[in-house]
Amino acid sequence: MPLALLALAIGAFGIGTTEFVVMGLLPEVAAEFQVSIPAAGFLATGYALGVVLGAPLMTALGTRISRKRMLMILMGLFIVGNVVTAAAPVFEVMVVGRVIASLAHGAFFGIGAVVAADLVAPQKKAGAIALMFTGLTVANVVGVPVGTYVGQHAGWRVTFSLVAALGVLGLLGVARLVPEQPRAEGVRLRQEVAAFRNVQVLLAMAMTVLGFGGVFAAITYITPMMTETAGYSTSAVTWLLVLFGLGMVGGNLIGGRYADRRPTLMLAVSLGGLALVLALFTVTSHHKVAAAVTLVLIGAFGFATVPPLQKRVLDQAVDAPTLASAMNIGAFNLGNALAAWLGGLVIGAGLGYTAPNWVGAALAASALLLAFASSALERRTTAPSRLVATHAPEQAAVPEPRS
């Protein structure tokens, strides 16, 4: 394994921790700022929307500098955002800090996925991407549970201060281990944008929004669901998040392994399984053991979709992959924001803490339908599908030399 993949995984670990840890601390934040749980959920929604906006913005700003330097700048922005979050005097400032940190998220994973794929042979791309995303999944086994425990016992501000320190470690890892990769000659922002005329790229991103939205419909409000419905104590949420993280790690690695062999089948199985377990969660969330098992399965099926979807975007936008890759990370978080918002709506409507599971099941099932449509379209065409058929193809980019 190239050491650069380890550096990318370290950065992913820090980003994954800050993204997910807030879900285990919603009651503490809501209590301190005297806001409702659905209102506190905007910390997840606001972060996700910041990722969606930051992915194209930061990627566009980074087109004129090397990928390594841009990754370092993004980690610096991540550190600043978490410091602001930890020191926030009022809820609104905390939201601002979350958004600042989130601006780095999409571009880091997007550019990082391109770097990871470029470090290995073509037949190992999905596996390399999965290794980078292992940092994100391991964050849910170690970073998020530890951060939740610390936040519940020492205060949530301490948690986000530690997350900022993780950002410093990630910055040092990128600076030390990631090789210099100059910006590919001949690739311009216009060419990057042109990739979005490919119907398959748009379909993959829509699957990302809906499929990953299914995961977050359930997970955003996991603390009140497990304490109020399943009957767990607040302290038990820590190890429940460990179980969810273990499912994520396993699903991500399995998805990376089989996405290089049978990507279409891997995507269909993972999305179908996700829709099923989310629907079952409305029942199993009333029973402690069944709820814990279901959490593992949600993590596994949800993150098994990540490598095949990210690889599909890179394959379809092969001439200019950076912006498309970053935008697909934004799509993951658009699904996060959509699910957190819809979950808050159904809870606020008095339907109970299990209602978001039905929302998630519907979103995942919709993504599965899009996967079937994408596969059918691919079988009928021999060339990449374009929204504007008469548009002349862009000039191919000069391949970037491998490090």
From TrEMBL:
Identify one Pfam family in the record.
MFS_1
Main site of residence? membrane
Membrane-spanning regions, if any?
A: 38-58, 70-91, 103-121, 128-150, 156-178, 199-222, 234-253, 265-283, 289-309, 330-352, 358-377
- The entry's keywords: Cell membrane, Membrane, Transmembrane, Transmembrane helix
Q: Specify whether Membrane is a keyword of the entry.
A: yes
Record's subcellular location:
Cell membrane
Concerning PROSITE patterns, the annotation shows: MFS
**Keyword hit for Membrane:** yes
| Domain Major facilitator superfamily (MFS) profile, residue spans | 4-379
Membrane topology per the entry is: Multi-pass membrane protein
Name of the featured protein:
MFS transporter
